[in-house]
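Incident review: delayed structure delivery

Summary: a single-chain prediction request sat in the queue longer than the usual turnaround. Root cause was a stuck worker, restarted by the on-call engineer. No data loss occurred. The affected request and its eventual output are reproduced below so the record is complete for anyone auditing the incident later.

Affected input:
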Amino acid sequence: MQIFTRLQTAIAVALFVLGAELVAQPNFFNQIPIPPLIDASLDTIHLEIRMTNHKFNPSNPSDSLNGGVDQPNGISTYAYNIAGDSTMTILGPTLKWHSYENTIITVKNLLGVSTTTHWHGAEVPSQMDGGPHQGIDPGETWQVGFPVLDSASTMWYHPHYHNKTVQHVQRGLSGMIIVEQEDDPIRNTLPHTYGVDDIPVIIGDLGLKGSASSSVFIDTVKGKRPFNLVNGVTNPYVEVPAHVIRLRILNGSTRKGILFGISESYNDPHSNLKPFYLVSTDGGYMLKPDTLTTLLNGPGARDEIILDLSDYIPGDVIYLSNLKDSLPNSVIGSPLVAPNGGGQDTTIGTAFLQLRVVPDLAFPDDYTPVTTFTPFTTTWSPGLSDTSNIAQHRLKRLVMQVDTISTSPLKTENMFTIDSNSYDMQVLNDTVCVDTKEIWTIHNTTAVAHPFHIHKIQFRVLDVTDSLGNNVDLEEQGLNGPKDDVLVLPGWTLRFLGQFDDYPSAIEPMNGYMYHCHILTHEDSVGGGMMQQFVVTNQGVCESSYVVDAKSDNAEMQLIPHGSEGTLSIRGGAEMPSTITIVNLQGRQVSRQQLPVFDKSFTINIGDLPSGLYLIEWRTHDNVMTGKVEVLR
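Output delivered after worker restart:
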């Protein structure tokens, strides 16, 4: 490693600048913006969502990526900003959360359309998750407050408004979340100076379309995204010190998978890749750093990688590349995937981000370099440490349904589903008991790779079997760390272990957490999509006896199944209309009925239910009572 004195550093800067004049860097001329870092421990975070204008190629003012002749301020975009600020013209500020501390955030919608803000990767109450049920109408402000239960990790926030997620994300609404943990012994051994050696790398894709008036707009419909973005600009570069650095990589693209590699060549086909350390995945640190030369990453996933640049000197360059020619054909982003393939990069070769090594003098005086990478070991959290005491096993099949109804053109928007069921906001597909562990099996029966994402939890991948029955190496795939978003290739069967702690709620669709494909055009299809929802409910519901007398201060309920008659009697009374919900022990809602006002008893027809145990919730205007019944035939 070389140590520069102030004089030597100044000389190096001059040589670097002179070298830059003599040898222009090919096709990398936009320095990536570093979003401002907003610390949640200092005060309530007040976010505003507003329409703005953005230039995607600011170094070339005449480029159509900056708008048409009648768009001097740039192309119309959406952005998050701190209230009263207008720094961000795309994306949003980076939010810094602290484990075990309370965080309060308000989100004001200044758009002309409804939207949501989802905290992707965070364990929060369902009412604060920001999914499809938590819409924010124009002019309204949504406030959330919760203790941060997550460990040190990289998460993100983005819209999740049903049938509009694609449009809102494509228009620019995404931002990074960094969770820090006060008792984290690993933090100070890793680069942690934000924007200097700890760099947010938010990857997006951009499609444009023109209009008769010569204006240029973002293409928000399904189709080719020909331009790759890093932190909102094309042709990107970032200045880095000649020390150990960390890249927090977020694949925020709508559809594309990425095969990362590090090289000193902007067109390295795969032959001279440099090793890097994968230290953290979606939910936190790996069991140990994995030394890799490539890493496959799907939409929605986050990976923290470490590069040791101590052998480099100012003026050197290296590249973060997308080795798309080596992507599996099934991954959207591969040039061989029809119809849109990987699209066209504005940078030459395989590289999409240039890292320019510059002297320490270029950085703030309080920057303290990390000069050596220190390996570490961790363990799984207690709930994920073993597979004993599993409360439930669930199988989820990723399915393609062929359109046999439409005439030409065939419908393709909702051709992909989970278990052949399109998303319905009013249906709970699974009910999970709080404080239990479950094993979920994801089987991809389609010919396309799908990034499976689940809200609320971080899970442990137990094993993966490919289409030939061979075990997939978890370390090579970067899967030995906590995940909430995992790319499942065709024919794969992937099993994960999840611990469903905290935040139980009533068995109501409004309390649902989502699980879905994070290819947004699959998740967010008109009329349905590749998404379902589950509820985490109170342990008492799951442990109550077979025939239940439930009482509260001013009401009681007795459930009596009559198998021979195919009916269920509710003994009690309701002075106002009420609701009865029936869920099987696989967690699927099988019946939901509105009950009229009644006194003493009411009979429900359950003749179409097979024998088995069922969870029952009776919700009146002032009470919620639950129980379990056994239906015998």
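Verification: Helices lie at 6-22, 165-170, 520-523, 539-543.
Action items: add queue-age alerting; document worker restart procedure.
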